[in-house]
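## retry 2 of 3
previous attempt timed out at serialization; input unchanged, resubmitting
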Amino acid sequence: MKLLFKILLLSCINLLNTRSIFAAVWKVGVQQNIHSIQAALAECKDGDTIFVDAGNYFEKNIIISKSIALIGLNHPVLDGEKKYEIISIKTDNVLLKGFVLQHSGASDMAEISAVKVYNCRDVVIVSNILTDNFFGIYFQYSLNCTAEENTVQGAGNPALQNGNAIHCFKCDSMRIIANHLNGHRDGIYFEFVTNSVIWRNISEKNIRYGLHFMQSHNNAYICNIFRNNGAGVAVMYSHGVKMYNNIFEDNQGEASYGLLIKEITDSYMQGNRFLNNTTAVYMEGGTRIEMQKNIFRNNGWAIKIQASCMDDEISFNNFSGNTFDIGTNGSLVLNHFNSNYWDKYEGYDLNKDGKGDVPYRPVSLYSLIVDNNPAAMVLFHSFIVTLIDKSEKVFPDLTPAGLEDNSPLMKPLPL
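## retry succeeded, writing output
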């Protein structure tokens, strides 16, 4: 939370400093002396503000190369006619606010965007509506920039014909806050991004991932909703990732996950809710990950933790209504389960300390059978399945002997 506070404080300070140097005001519109945004940009100086009246503007590619504020009144429409990048920002200290940006060009060779920020710092993009663009908001080699309260709606094209809603490449100290992202390839994409925060966004109905991390270290994502995407979130090849109070729900499909963890280390998950996903969390190569006070409810698999994971701590979580609680592909257990609530636990608490007196083994024999032979799901809720699992509990043989919670909670935690 200290990282979030520091980043937001810097954002406010930078915005105030930027606005304090604004010198002149320019007005663009049909009833104004200046009729085009590009004409106003040619006349203005660093620190000026340009207000744009409502209307439709077809200006090919608008290049901002001065430190100005460009503000739309009643959401003027900037149309790329499916040919052009709509706005290209190529200098520091720019504010872009209050526009509708639609119909950018698309290309297999270039990452054409509604708004693209080129190697800049202290750029703020806020309260815009972006529809039917290839990429929505694209930051590259940028520092201390903000995308806040934008609505980014993709055309729903196949993944290869669609860019990402908000894309950050080789950036630092970014803030992606309270945006609503829908219908793109990925809702938010981070590649080689550090020390940044993703906060209070809704990312839903995207073709691939609601959020996608690649080689991005020491970032936090907090209080977001990832709903009904191809998969909720993928965090890959990163360390120092903090995941707090997010909701992962209705991410369903044969290869769909609420959260995919691949080769990440020294990271934290706390206060998240995983609801109605095919697989809530899939972990491969996760090391020293702390998972605490999360809710896993009504998922197919709550957690699939592969044998390549080690030194992970799963404690004080609630598991309820899941078809299978835990799945794994190995017999050597190098992770720790402690003081979780499991609704399938059938043990007892004679000393009334709130913890079961016998361990709970969350990997069932039937889950191992289904993992290797998915067609076996046809037997779900049958007598033979009950018999198999009861027999395995009495004479454990095939399920991992060390994968157990030695102090399972008798009642769910008030999370």
